[in-house]
């Protein structure tokens, strides 16, 4: 049976024209149905994960990280792209020890001003950095030595390596239109010489670009892609993009009659795929509903989907994460910013390792929260025996608000 998928196509604004159209879902595509959503829903870590590990990134003035905008794991090193503080790509080993900076800031041909995307090209053994200020992709070898660069006449949001000497470019239409460089496609394929060899996913003027990851890589290094404000995930295989997953939001899909342009937002009652990651076990995706970020976990083995916007750590201490960025095999990697753990520090300070007192302190922390949120959280408290060890206390006590972010390694369980 063929289904209809929401694919957003925006045109020049016309009062009588629908700006959202539908494309047909191909046979054999995995459908992941999101049947019902609530404003508050919760999961325990133990529902999804087997283990939690924290990796503190080494902190020194010369390599402070403002935001983990992108994170890649390669050859047992974490590559952290920071657009806020260092405006650089910093390399840490798997224990979080600082190793080096990839490239340098500057206006020279070997340098970048504002790095926006890092790609690891295993076909050519290169590290590729897109500099949005210079509109160029800079190529380094695996040791960080400059090799060459490709300049553009337009702005891209991000890019991905598809195969040897072939890149997919996803465009920043808002910035291109602002500078009168309108383009007719969302996606273009470019060779290593900078020549456009194919154009995909036609674009109509005034389509906004959602803030999410458009590309991801599967375990066999295949590229996955989802256009802005879309519910389908495509896989690049056999020289073409083919539909692989359909996240069916049903009544929560953006209706065909809605009007959206560069300056409008999606109403809270509707949603779409924002970020996705495929691991050997699951499809992980994020979406927003009524202003709250939700996390979806789909088991490829059991075809089970679970999702929530409150994830509560009942495995190791109480620390959670601020976002999930990437994966290492069947481990999701999240990031936790030290300035956001003050509440947990206060709970630890009040309860210590007294776990009976800990549960009472957690209950007190709900004061002032919305009723629906209290009910969700209280149900978790009543069914969970939270424990805090001396090791947990020492770890949290060792963190200051001025430290570099903490990576959270979450081992996915079978469910």
Automatic annotation (TrEMBL):
<dbReference type="Pfam" id="PF17170">
    <property type="entry name" value="DUF5128"/>
</dbReference>
<dbReference type="InterPro" id="IPR011042">
    <property type="entry name" value="6-blade_b-propeller_TolB-like"/>
</dbReference>
<protein>
    <submittedName>
        <fullName>6-bladed beta-propeller</fullName>
    </submittedName>
</protein>
């Amino acid at each position: 049976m063929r289904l209809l998928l929401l694919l957003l196509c925006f045109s020049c604004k016309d009062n009588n024209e629908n700006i959202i159209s539908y494309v047909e879902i191909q046979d054999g595509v995995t459908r992941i149905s999101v049947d019902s959503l609530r404003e508050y829903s919760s999961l325990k870590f133990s529902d999804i994960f087997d283990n939690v590990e924290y990796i503190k990134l080494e902190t020194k003035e010369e390599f402070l990280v403002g935001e983990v905008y992108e994170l890649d794991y390669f050859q047992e090193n974490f590559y952290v792209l920071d657009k806020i503080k260092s405006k650089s790509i910093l390399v840490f080993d798997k224990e979080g020890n600082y190793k080096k900076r990839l490239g340098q800031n500057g206006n020279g041909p070997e340098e970048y001003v504002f790095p926006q995307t890092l790609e690891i090209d295993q076909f050519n053994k290169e590290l590729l950095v897109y500099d949005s200020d210079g509109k160029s992709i800079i190529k380094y070898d695996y040791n960080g030595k400059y090799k060459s660069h490709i300049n553009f006449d337009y702005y891209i949001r991000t890019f991905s390596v598809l195969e040897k000497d072939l890149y997919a470019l996803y465009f920043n239409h808002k910035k291109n239109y602002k500078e009168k460089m309108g383009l007719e496609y969302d996606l273009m394929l470019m060779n290593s010489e900078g020549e456009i060899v194919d154009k995909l996913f036609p674009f109509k003027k005034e389509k906004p670009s959602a803030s999410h990851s458009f590309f991801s890589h599967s375990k066999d290094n295949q590229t996955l892609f989802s256009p802005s404000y879309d519910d389908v995930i495509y896989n690049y295989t056999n020289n073409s993009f083919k539909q692989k997953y359909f996240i069916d939001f049903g009544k929560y899909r953006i209706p065909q009659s809605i009007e959206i342009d560069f300056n409008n937002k999606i109403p809270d009652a509707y949603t779409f795929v924002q970020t996705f990651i495929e691991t050997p076990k699951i499809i992980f995706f994020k979406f927003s509903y009524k202003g709250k970020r939700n996390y979806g976990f789909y088991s490829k083995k059991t075809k089970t989907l679970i999702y929530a916007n409150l994830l509560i750590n009942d495995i190791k201490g109480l620390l959670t994460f601020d976002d999930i960025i990437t994966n290492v095999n069947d481990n999701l990697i999240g990031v936790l910013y030290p300035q956001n753990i003050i509440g947990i520090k206060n709970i630890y300070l009040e309860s210590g390792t007294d776990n009976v007192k800990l549960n009472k302190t957690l209950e007190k922390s709900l004061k002032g929260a919305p009723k629906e949120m209290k009910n969700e959280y209280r149900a978790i408290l009543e069914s969970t025996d939270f424990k805090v060890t001396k090791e947990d206390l020492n770890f949290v006590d060792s963190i200051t608000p001025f430290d570099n972010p903490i990576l959270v390694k979450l081992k996915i369980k079978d469910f």
